[in-house]
Amino acid sequence: MFHNRASLQGFRLPQRSPNMMDVPITSDIVIISGNSHPELSNLVASRLGVKTGGCAVYHKANRETMVEIGDSVRGKDIYIIQTGTKDVNNNIMELLIMAYACKTSSAKSIVAVIPYLPYSKQCKMRKRGCIVSKLLAKMMCKSGLTHVITMDLHQKEIQGFFDCPVDNLRASPFLLQYIQECIPDYRNAVIVARNPGSAKKATSYAERLRLGIAVIHGEQKEAESDEVDGRYSPPTVPRSRTMDVSVGVPVHPAKEKPPINVVGDVGGRIAIMVDDLIDDVQSFVAAAEVLKERGAYKIYVLATHGLLSSDAPRLIDDSPIDEVVVTNTIPHELQKMQCHKIKTVDISVLLSEAIRRIHNKESMSYLFKNVTLED
Question: Phi, psi at residue 179, to the nearest 5°?
């Protein structure tokens, strides 16, 4: 097919901003979002140079969730941005209904971008309970999701619950950059593990920053195994003399929690506690008080997800903690208004780059460069 040169004189190729990501000009990518975190959705969409799709998610008078997709999604790649907040059950139902609506509208692929995966702490069998993360993963896959992008899962093994690919991104590079650029004299800091369970994550941060590590041992908290549910009734003892000799179920010895102690030197140092989630801050406040008694002159708390439930802002404001740094995987603007110590790190660039690479069928390995199992 030939064109007259004169007819092409007024034609101009679309110009891209030099700061914009190298996104191909395409119309088969659609970004929609629920009501959980519209600010993050707009940030991701603006970084990709696209607009969020026309999707209305609302509740009827009887609290049923309604989803109306205004634009055509037939044969397109759909990216649903929905995170977990305090209204967790509505967030899940909105995601499932949006995914199923796209599936029944003949979408080519449906990728869920879930910065904070709800129910990720219920990933182990506890007494007569169940593994809720497994149930949630099955529901998501059945609704039509073909791929899941999430960030800093509570346990990395949760990826195995899904029957579709899962990319578990890491926020640690952003938090490490915050430590290096925003904490003065960070070379005089020590990375603190709030309990022995988070020692691996603290070690990973300490090795990257070339700092020391301290571990808080003996934290006073109620473990799920300590709850009385009637299963500790002793077994019946047989009366036969031959059965009495070294036969029977031995009683499991009860745990005696030691007093809170800090393993490591924090005197005259900056203490930086790292974790994946801050929800109930009482344990962080108790740890900060112990660190203050041991001579730490500044205390920071860094985490990926900041749920900050109930009266967390007030507790943080009254505590020895100097700053709580979280990412914007979960909206917490109200908590920031109540407490000036809460700071936010934007991770929308990581999510938008992950979407771009998946859409262009590029390798994701760059986003996991130097990532270890402890991160």
Answer: -60, -45
> What H or E segment, with its residue span, contains residue 354?
helix 348-359
Helices 38-48 & 348-359 angle (0-180, nearest 10): 50
- How many Cα atoms occupy the beta-carbon half-sphere of 148 within 13 Å? 32
pLDDT tens for 234-284 read: 555 556 555 554 556 777 787 777 888 899 999 999 999 999 999 989 999
**pTM for this predicted structure:** 0.84
Judge contact between 297 and 270, C-beta under 8 A. yes
The residue with greater pLDDT, 58 or 257, is 58
Rounded to 5 degrees, what are φ and ψ at 304?
Answer: -75, -50
Question: Got the DSSP string for 218-278?
Answer: ------GGGS--STTPPPPPP--HHHHSS-SPPPPPPP-PPPPEEES--TTSEEEEEEEEE
| Per-residue DSSP letter, 59 | E
The number of residues in the chain equals: 375
What strand order describes the sheet that includes 261-263? 261-263, 212-217, 189-193, 270-278, 298-306, 323-327, 342-345
The pLDDT tens digits for 73-118 are 999 999 999 999 999 999 999 999 999 999 999 999 999 999 999 9
Strands 189-193 and 212-217, bridge-based pairing? parallel
Q: Are 28 and 75 in contact (CB under 8 A)?
A: yes
